Amino acid sequence: MSNTISNMKMTNRIKGMVSKHRRRFTQDGFDLDLTYIKENLIAMGFPAEKLEGVYRNHIDDVVKLLESKHKDHYKIYNLCSERSYDSKKFKQRVATYAFDDHNPPMLDQIRPFCEDVHEWLSQHEENIAVVHCKAGKGRTGVMVCCYLLHTKQFSTATDALNYYGTQRTLDRKGVTIPSQRRYVHYYATLVQEGLNYQPVTLLLRKIQLDPAPIFHGGQGYLHCVISESKKKVFSSEIVEVRKGMSTVSISLTHSVALTGDIRVDFFNRPKMKRKEKLFHFWFNTFFVRDYLTPEYDNGELPVERSTRALSYDGATMELPMVIPPMKPRTGSLATLGPMPPTLLLSIDKWGLDDAHKDIQHKVYSEDFKVSLFMHRMGGSISQAVPATADGTKEGIEIEIDRPDSPSESSDGDSSDSDSTGDSSGDEDGESGESSASLMVNHHHLTHSSSRTHVSIRQRASLRETAKGLLSCGDKSRSSHRQNTGNVKRSSALVRSATLDT
User: Fold this and answer.
1) Which PANTHER family match (predicted)?
2) Which of 421, 368, 72, 129 lies closest to 247, judged by CA?
3) Residue 267 in contact with residue 260, Cβ under 8 Å?
């Protein structure tokens, strides 16, 4: 008997160590990693079996608690994608809304979960909902907070997150992963503004890190991977980052179409060493709502808040939208036709998963941020093409902005940047893309007539003419201005050649 009691005390100490700062239910002889968030809403750790049940909630103990206190009135909501259990233990009252650990749910999972919980709790006043993931904190907290917002028990995401943190943990650290918190704010926006979520497609044009990360030894090799629905849709070239660089930019010659829930990962990939994960973040294209003002649309970051609008196209619900006029940009498609406004998603250090842990600013400065420059689908912009997983040089141009040196001309454009060895052609100033590529790939945009057509022979001639004009330019600033004139003449040539004769 004494050995049994001793073993129980030892087991409880182990469980207490595993649960860390999560509040435990220690009444009526139970000691479980389980918390009543509301009278009818429970958050708990995974109900485990066998050896895992020694240091987590044992499934038999959970069943005993629920049967003794809420018999025939409980329903389990399993959020784990990595594991499950026999639902017969809980009388088949188990619903699964699975997503991966340390990640947010897909946005279209949230409302069905909230409606399911609300329907169950509305069936009987004694019904309770029991929500769990593995630890019963992060993923569980996201969905619990969304339910509290869904039922208007809290009006803001911040209030819901703070309440959950206080109820579930001793240190008030409930949902701590930035991307998970972002999705709670997303759902709060849907509820507050009465929006119906629909996937929106945006075209990614440029990625920018500002300021550049600080690597050990003063040198790093940055690699970016973008995934959609767990499938890789973009992989950048490896960018060498050296000490003293102020900004790292990755400009895409061909825009990459992104729809819905998007994950962006950054790695350090030295040539002779194993790659190192730096940070990642999730976002949803529906909520990209900042427009760059015209004077900053060449790549600068200040945003005019009066131009905020959801990326939602308004098929179900129209939103007021202010679209600033675009100024022409030499050597870009703006000389051939109107460009749509640039959408900006800028996430600071504290919104980046893993980077937010660098509280000493050893790798990322306090003002570090990642910015994504995008366009809507359907505008007069470069055609999106299926992105390759290995990031070929034809589909991407790398720019690294360095601090201005005293030897540089004072009247130089601040958006100029140095090439990192891409031999596809000279950069054309502010646009950050190859003028030859823009004119050749998109010359069909230069005339609005539906009858416009160019023969294959004419297109080949235009391609060679454009490339020839660009390749003859010098890299100095004086010849850069001369080269800009060549681009304008090339644009005129393309325009005249495409007119219907």
Assistant:
1) PHOSPHATASE WITH HOMOLOGY TO TENSIN, PHOSPHATIDYLINOSITOL 3,4,5-TRISPHOSPHATE 3-PHOSPHATASE AND DUAL-SPECIFICITY PROTEIN PHOSPHATASE PTEN
2) 368
3) no
